[in-house]
């Protein structure tokens, strides 16, 4: 589910959440679509997502999710909303949420 729009999709655990949202008509934020720019960061409202690159599962409410390289790992909701400013796409926001992902 995409909480700001009310759009819902039922998919298996393989398509990136960015593509799922776009297919549901949600104006998802994005940039490179390859896990590089962090332009697709979207807060997780609830549920579990899996990083398609590492297999790591994220489930902390409010955690910023890279939707272009993450898929559903069960029922979930994203607080999908287009970015209002360049700050909304700031990769540092993602790193602050998860210290293990701090830039080197
Ligand atoms: S769109 Fe660039 S990291 Fe997701």
Automatic annotation (TrEMBL):
Source taxon at top rank: Bacteria
Alphabetized SUPFAM superfamilies for the sequence: 2Fe-2S ferredoxin-like (SSF54292)
CDD domains, per the entry: fer2 (cd00207)
Pfam families, per database record: Fer2
GO molecular function term, any single one: iron-sulfur cluster binding
Compositional bias of kind Basic and acidic residues: 85-104
Residues covered by region (Disordered): 80-104
Annotated ranges, domain 2Fe-2S ferredoxin-type: 10-71
Cited InterPro entries: 2Fe-2S_ferredoxin-like_sf, 2Fe-2S_ferredoxin-type, Beta-grasp_dom_sf
Transmembrane segments annotated in the record for this chain: none
Protein name: 2Fe-2S ferredoxin-type domain-containing protein
Organism: Streptomyces spectabilis
